Amino acid sequence: MLTGIHAAFIGGDARQLEVIKKFIELDAAVTLIGFDNWESNFTGAVKRPLSADVLRDVDALILPIVGSDDKGYVESIFCSKPLQLTEEILAALPAHCCIYTGIARSFLMSVAAKQNLGLVELMDRDDVAIYNSIPTVEGALMMTIQNTDFTIHNSNSLVLGLGRVGVSMARALHALGAHVRVGARKSSDLARIFEMGLTPFHIDELSQQVDDADLIFNTIPHVIITAKVIANMQHHALIIDLASKPGGADFRYAEKRGIKAILAPGLPGIVAPKTAGQIIANTLSRLVFEQTGNRRNRNGSQG
């Protein structure tokens, strides 16, 4: 239970609703900031405007998966007014407060360090990222089917990167009967790809590997599918870029060559917001409980 914990939620999308429900069920005191246009009221939660006064007794500040931009702006589909965090507003948080977000950019990292506040990036955690890879892969498969006139089965499919999403993507394609090749750099990853029954190749060989590729799924968050690589692709090839913005493909050159390339970050929140929200809610509620318990134990031992 989260009895006695004050959690403030700032902005977000449909995923955040599942997290809010979970915190209310666990008896937390919940403040909603940036939910002006959300018509259904949560029993046990109060809506407030963004201000320093609202944050003075907050134990956990919960931001959307995308966090804030480098100027402190937080996205919210439930608010028509811009939400901007400032250093002055965050300075009102008590010293024990922890900020939870999916991804922290420079603004959040800088302010948290300056104010000596805890900062947790959920997408850095293996448990969240692995669970999240399930709706990511389902969304990628949906986009593939919508944008091709051939089956995934028997296709030549490339997966770039063997991280949390790359592993799940490669397994799903293999299960659907695709001929799967996976590009990676580390020798241990290449060995793992071979052990999975797939065909490994070093990412430096990408230009030579794409000449017969029908489908290319990128998970590497820097430009790896360059103009040189795209020049070797077949015209019917489809690129699904699952890396975070700005992605890992030269989209301008792909368009020039008539090759369809789709940047698709944040698929869990688009294709399965309920499941994606529950994944975040379960992990986040546990983390907040542990953080509060640790703080209480420290305070008790000091007393």
Overview of this structure, please?
With 303 residues, the chain is an alpha/beta fold. It is 39% helix and 18% strand. The chain has eleven helices and 14 strands. The strands form three sheets. A six-stranded parallel beta sheet has the order 3-2-1-4-7-8, sandwiched between helices. A six-stranded parallel beta sheet has the order 11-10-9-12-13-14. The protein has a two-stranded antiparallel ribbon with strand order 5-6. The chain starts with 5 loop residues before the first strand and ends with a helix.
Shape: elongated
Strand order, sheet with most strands: 3-2-1-4-7-8
SS-based structural class? alpha/beta
Major beta-sheet overview: 6 strands, parallel
Return the average pLDDT rounded to an integer. 93
Order of helices and strands: EHEEEEEHEHEHEHEHEHEHEHEHH
Q: Helical element count?
A: 11
Our measurement of the CA-to-CA distance between the termini, rounded to an integer number of angstroms, reads 24 Å
* Beta content: 15-25%
Number of E-type strands? 14
Rg is 22 Å
Q: Low-confidence runs (pLDDT<50, min 5 residues)?
A: none
